[in-house]
Every structure is written in C-alpha cells, then in structure tokens.
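Pilot study result, target chain (265 residues):
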Amino acid sequence: MKIVCVDDEVNALAAIKKEVEKIEGITEVQGFTSPQAALQYICTHSCDVALLDIQMQGIDGLELAKKIREGSKATSIIFLTGYSEYAVSAFHLHVSGYILKPASKEDIERELQYIKEQPLFQQSRLLRVQCFGNFEVFVNQTPLKFERMKSKELLAYLIDRKGAAVTTGELCAVLWEERPDSLSLRNQLRTLIADLTRTLKQAGMQQVLIKRRNQYAVAVDCVDCDYYHFLRGDTAAMNHYYGEYMAQYSWGEMTLGMLECMKTR
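Predicted structure:
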C-alpha cells in the first residue's frame, strides 16, 4: 500500500509517518506539510490512502479531501483530528476512516484493514489488461507507461502464458526470435526484468510479477484481463473479441488460432 500523510505541523507529521511505517504491507510513505504539494503529488502519482489532518492553515483537511476526490477518485481518505465534532463532516464526505489524535499504529492499521476489505479497493488493486486488439495495460483507468517496449512485450507474453512459469531461455527465444541464445541476450533480459519490476512497483502493482530462480510468471488473481474472462466463458468478453489478439506481437498467432476455434464452437 502507498500512503500519503498530510499535517502542517512538522512534529505531528513525523509522528504519524513513524506509526504508518511500522505497519506490515506498506510499500511507500510520503509526508507533506503543504496541502497544495500533497494534492499535486496525489493527483500525479498512484496513491492508495491519504491520511489528512483536518485542521491546517490555508486548505484544511475537509477542503483538501474534496479536491482529492475530484483529482484521484481511487485514493481512500482517512481523517486525523483531535476534535470528535468533525466526524459528521467526515461522514458527509464519504471518507474511508476517522482517527482521533494521537493516532497509534493499531488505530491506523484497523482503518487500513477496513479499506482493504472494500470491493472498490480490491478492484483498484487489479492490473487491467487488454489483449483483444493491441495489448494494452491500465492502472486505475490510466494507461501504464513502459520505458522500454520490450518490457511491455515481456509482460504480454507472461499474460499469454496465464500464470505458467516461463524460463529465461523461453523468454529470450520469444523476445528475440531471430537471434540465438547467448550471454548477451540473457543480460538484456535481466535488464528488461528489472525495468518491468520497477514499472510495476511505481504503479503499486509489484504483486503482479512472480519471480523464481530463472523463471517468471504473472499472478493471475492480480490481473483483470479480457482474455482470461473469455476463457471462463464470460459473454461480455466473448462479444468484445473481433478476431484480433495482441496484434503487435507475431507470437500471439497461436493463441489467436485457439480463440478462433473457441469462438466458432
């Protein structure tokens, strides 16, 4: 989980960050004393939860929550305050949680667990993958940016394999069809694996890639994929298939043939 903490008091911010960092499963914690800077960060980065102090100078927590709702609907909001009378305002904003200061690790952990159990949050933790037509990847409805096109193709092939483990030798053969296996290719593959890992981590989706010794796979339960829905007989997915599958990759033709057979049954 990626958390942003906002409190205009430096000591209070340090205290809340310290408690959050004690919680297992937190992958990143960012802290801001400026509500404006926090808003800009949240709207331009993947952020799961914002912990907001209600009483702040300039933009208070209630106003900041409204702006976050407008710019990042996938971000859950938890209010921090020393005054219980703000609970009604928090309720009307439909925030995810409300904690009275001083907030302990247990207080924060309880609210985060509640958020994790919500269907909307669980859906946002899935990497959405489009295989029909061209291969595309989305995080919270935003296209995932790949620094290297080969890294994107690597992920595409792992998606195509539906969670089956793929060896480094097989990946080299698929990604560089015209070149014989060599130490140079293995080194290039390692670079791609590192690049893909970094890309997924920055998007908060590192759980998608499974690594074992010289083998790689995708965690299919972390992916929302039209191809997988098709295989399960989902009517909507079958209706969205128009005879194209990962069109930019020649190795996808075998799966395309299988889909054509399934479609005509």
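One observation from the pilot: Residues 127-263 form a domain with the Arc Repressor Mutant, subunit A fold (CATH 1.10.10.10). A full batch analysis is planned for the follow-on phase.
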